[in-house]
Amino acid sequence: MQVSKQDYSKVEPFVAVPDAVLSEGIVYVSPARTLLWVDIYRAKVYRRRMDTGVTDVFHADGSGSIGAVFPILKRSSSDGNDTQVEEFLFAAKEGIAHGQFGGSWKYVVKYSESGLDSERLKRLRSNDGNVHGEDLYIGLINDFDQETTDEGVIFKINLVSKKIDVFWPRISIPNSLYWVGEYMFVTDSMNSCIWRTKHGFQEREKFIDVTQYSTDPEGNLPEPDGSCLSSNGELLFVSIWGHSKVQVFSTKDGALLQEILLPEETPRVSCCAVVGSDLFVTTGSEHLGTSKVGQPSKGGCLYRLSDVIPESDEFSTRGIIYRDD
Fold this sequence. Notes:
The chain is mostly beta strands and about 325 residues long. It is about 0% helix and about 45% strand. It is globular and about 50 Å long. GO terms for molecular function: calcium ion binding; gluconolactonase activity.
């Protein structure tokens, strides 16, 4: 089947962050009309208010890194009241922490409570995750100063009891997690695939093999990175790290339907979020993993791609945590 392409290779950054290293984990919070994303390497959370255009930054000094952010809204916010995102949970080096814009942060759950080997945990850091019902799922990978192995893990943390369990015992680079109906989708970057499962690791099946659609003349394997669903859950938008593109797959049969091309100077496409008809895409710096890390670059910016999905409704692209007033 012929795959359609949308060419945004000439688009300019929507939010330029010249010293960013690894912008990731973008989420749109519909009731607040707010985008949140992180710079994993610099341990920062960014907030962009779509109504005002104001961008705020929270730095979790001493946290090691931030793999993902999980917005918190007051329960009344679901009815349209008090819809500012001020508080959030985030995945730090050693566990899940609570933070607040303009405030401090503290751990609420430590990964050490899982019973996983302590030496193994020292070699890991948080990566991507999501909230589903009362549970928070978070993937861990080898830290920046470690060799990538299959020591990674996905934890399941109950937000009420704070109980933490090993959900996926071994994985190299776990990335975005989503649910459609009875199925959970787990991104496995190093294996260039997306798993589908009803009950976890033991019953997984390889649903999307991204290597089938690689056209890199140098033979660089495509790494599926952060992703998002369409409002009806029928489309999965997957950022392809190192290939300057987002691929769109069907969640019904795993078929590749479309490719969205981004500027070649920012090949490290890291995550995306659908907002109405537009697609917002984060990127990583080309200096990551080199002695030039932290030097100014176009990588690390946020792109806004207009009219990717015509006439789409706005919705929250990941799970929101609601608390009582």
